[in-house]
Amino acid sequence: AQKITQTQPGMFVQEKEAVTLDCTYDTSDPSYGLFWYKQPSSGEMIFLIYQGSYDQQNATEGRYSLNFQKARKSANLVISASQLGDSAMYFCAMREGRNSGGGADGLTFGKGTHLIIQP
Amino acid sequence: EADIYQTPRYLVIGTGKKITLECSQTMGHDKMYWYQQDPGMELHLIHYSYGVNSTEKGDLSSESTVSRIRTEHFPLTLESARPSHTSQYLCASSEFNDEKDTQYFGPGTRLTVL
Question: Is the peptide bond before B8 cis (omega within 30 degrees of 0)?
């Protein structure tokens, strides 16, 4: 089963509109972290926002916010007032099994959403 | 701002060649990772390291090997490149004591094997 599901392969959004990118996850671990990354056509991965499984409030970073619904296992990214420069691939990712000693296991990524902002 | 570097950015080589993809970071991070990403697809973890002299295989089986002789350096080697190795390779690092364990990525190396 997919651990991270992004159901929107592509989205077209008008500039200045808000956009929501969907992400659902699957884990039985009580401790996990959720991340969103942006990948422009140049290929680098840019960290946007993080949500911990025990965080009580939804994460926010500038124009980015994370709509975290733990019971539904969803972690949707909301971009307010979209800009042309927001056009890129967006990946949701999860890290499982964080304990006090730390761990070096990597992230599990979804297949991504290709967001295109239209003028 | 993350300071993690990868060279080369683009590499086109013939089948059978030995190649090394370089990754270095100046943040003093203990943990480093290599991911493989086919065009338009998700990233898959192929190697990671807890620190010097530590290397582990990731979720996706890979014919590549890695080494970690210095904290800041985590090169990936393919002994005999094949067309099936054509992909983008992304290096990342994170701080061991960071509660979020946020991974910061390099710009990637796009490898094409003819």
Answer: yes
Structure confidence at residue A102 as a pLDDT band (50, 70, 90):
very low
3-class SS of residue B95: coil
Contact B102 A50 (CB under 8 A): yes
DSSP state of B25: E
Could you tell me the sign of the dihedral formed by the alpha carbons of A82, A86, A87, A90, in that order?
negative
**CA separation (Å) from B46 to A51, A60, A97, B35?**
24, 31, 18, 5
In this prediction, residues A92-111 reach a mean pLDDT of: 74
Q: Which of A4, A33, A44 sits opposite B101 (nearest CB)?
A: A33
Distance CA A83, CA B27 (A): 31
Which of A38, A45, A47, A114 to mutate to test binding with chain B, by most B CBs within 10 Å of its CB?
A45
List average pLDDT for each run of 10 residues in chain B, which is 114 residues long: 88 96 94 94 93 91 93 96 96 82 93 97
Out of B42, B100, B108, name the one closest to residue A91 (CB).
B42
In this complex, how many residue pairs, one in chain A and one in chain B, have their CB atoms less than 8 Å apart? 71
